[in-house]
Specification:
alpha+beta, single chain, structural constituent of ribosome, ribosomal protein
Length: about 150
C-alpha cells in the first residue's frame, strides 16, 4: 500500500470559549466569547474586554452575524458568569492577541485610511510614487547588469 499522509482540517469549531468577532448589529467590530450554545444558529456571548469602549454585554447572537477567530479561552465552563469570563479573558490576554492578529491590523489600517483628509491622501499618493520610482530604478540596474543572450 502507498503511504498516505492524512492532514487534519483546521476547522474553527463553534465551542464554548471560542472568541468571535461581531460583524453586524450594535456591537459591530467588537470581540466576544461564546459562553453557551443555544441552538445550531445562535450562541450566548459575553465580551468583557479590558478596554471600556469594546465591552459587549451578555446576549444571544446569531452565528450568521459573527466571524469565528482562531482564539479560544481554554477551560471556560459552560454558562460561566461575566466575572469568570473576564478573569480568563485577561489571563489569556485575548485583547493583546487580537491586536497582533492580521485581521485586526487590516481593519485598523482600512479605518485609518478611510478617515484621511485630502492633504493626507495626497501625501500617501506622493509616497507611493516615490516608492514605485525607487523600485523601477532598482529593476533597471538589475536588467542592465544581467548578461545579454
Amino acid at each position: 500500500m502507498a503511504d498516505i499522509d492524512v492532514k487534519i482540517a483546521q476547522w474553527k469549531l463553534v465551542e464554548v470559549g471560542r472568541v468571535l468577532l461581531i460583524r453586524s448589529g450594535p456591537f459591530t467590530g467588537k470581540l466576544a466569547a461564546i459562553v453557551e450554545i443555544i441552538d445550531h444558529k445562535r450562541v450566548l456571548v459575553d465580551g468583557p474586554s479590558t478596554e471600556e469602549n469594546k465591552i459587549v454585554p451578555r446576549h444571544a447572537l446569531p452565528l450568521a452575524h459573527a466571524t469565528l477567530t482562531p482564539f479560544v479561552i481554554p477551560k471556560l465552563p459552560r454558562a460561566a458568569g461575566t466575572g469568570p469570563v473576564k478573569k480568563l479573558w485577561e489571563k489569556n490576554e485575548i485583547d493583546g492577541k487580537w491586536a497582533k492578529s492580521t485581521i485586526s491590523q487590516k481593519t485598523e489600517r482600512a479605518e485609518r485610511r478611510k478617515n484621511l483628509t485630502d492633504f493626507e491622501r495626497f501625501k500617501v499618493l506622493r509616497l507611493r510614487k516615490q516608492a514605485r520610482y525607487e523600485v523601477q530604478k532598482a529593476h533597471a540596474k538589475v536588467r542592465a547588469a544581467a548578461p545579454k543572450s
